[in-house]
Every structure is written in structure tokens, then in C-alpha cells.
Amino acid sequence: MKLRVDLLRHGETTLSHTLRGSTDDDLTELGWQQMHQSIFLDQNSVHTKWDYIFSSPLKRCAQFAQSFSQHVSIPLLQDQRLQEIHFGDWEGISVQQIYTDSPELLANFWQYPTRFTPPNAEKYLDFQSRINQALHSIQQHMLASNSRSALVVTHGGVIKLLKCMALQQSLDDILKMTADLGQLNRFILDSETMQLELLEDVI
């Protein structure tokens, strides 16, 4: 069975100039607008219909997901595993500052993120395992409720990871993937094989 899973990245936040990972910052007014424009055709109608909404519990995802869920009367489930990767000692610090302090480590991290982990940060292989578990739970919930489509409100790292999986790219290519603020990406999930297909980069 083919399941449609649309992933919406949160919009601009108060700390968008930093690596915020698990830092729980708020959406800016522009961030709300970016997400709204990706979902709504106008004030009352949406681009598409979903049976369920799943969301990261971090405010930059959860607040929009809660508002949208109430607006369209679609059930919402939060999942801790849909959070962004944790950047450890780099949390809340700008890339420019990290480059100033640790240029070699930053360069290695950008090129080989599975081999070079920021101090006290979550490893990308652990992040991949966590997101795979979340995806499996989404699949199980959709099958149990006879659902065919879901909206997942989440983070750039999650979307980039799933793009790597769908395109059968190395996990070291994750930082080369795109996931713009407020962007909606459409995937098809084969419920039997758990294989992902990327249908559209932007909706």
C-alpha cells in the first residue's frame, strides 16, 4: 500500500541564524507566514487534505501544528522522535562563530557528518535510527486507522535525512540536501517495504 507523507519544515525562528537543534525557540511572524503560505491556497482552503498531522514537540513546529489542526479539525499527534538533531556544544551558536572557534572541525563536519560529531552532540547514525523509528510509528498508525495521507511538521535535518533515504544517497550527503524554511515536501511511503519515494521538492 502506498501512503502519502508530506513533510513541512517550520518557518523562520528567533534563532534562525544559529544551529538550534533541540533548542526550543519560537517562530517569528515571518515564520508563521512561511508555513501558512505552504499549506493554504487562501484564508479558508488548503492545498491538500490529510487524515492525520504528526509534529515535533518543539514550539517552532508544535504551535503551528496545533493551530492548523484546530482550524481544519484533523487529529494531531506529537512525537518526541521527530525533533531536530541535537548539536551539543554548538547549540544556539552561529556557523560564523563556530568557524572562528573550530574551523577544522566545522569543515570536517560539513563534509563527513557521520564521522565528525560536534562536542556532546547526537551522532547522525543515532539520529537516523530515531527518525526511522518515528517513520515506522507513523506508518503503523496510518495503517491501523486506515489513513492514506499525513502531514508531518518537523525540521530541516529530518527532511534532509528522508531525502537521502528516498534518493538512496549516502548519509554523508545529508547536508547537501535542501529543506527551505516553511517548505513542504511530498513523499510516498511503501507500507510493505518501508521504501520512500520523493515526489515533489516543493508544493
Automatic annotation (TrEMBL):
InterPro entries: His_Pase_superF_clade-1 (IPR013078), His_PPase_superfam (IPR029033), PGM_Phosphatase (IPR050275). SUPFAM superfamilies: Phosphoglycerate mutase-like (SSF53254). One of its GO terms (cellular component) is cytoplasm. Substrate binds at R60. The active site is at H10, E84. SMART domains: PGAM. Gene3D superfamilies: Phosphoglycerate mutase-like (3.40.50.1240). It comes from the Bacteria. GO terms for molecular function: phosphatase activity. PANTHER family: BROAD-SPECIFICITY PHOSPHATASE YOR283W-RELATED, HISTIDINE PHOSPHATASE FAMILY PROTEIN-RELATED. This is Histidine phosphatase family protein.
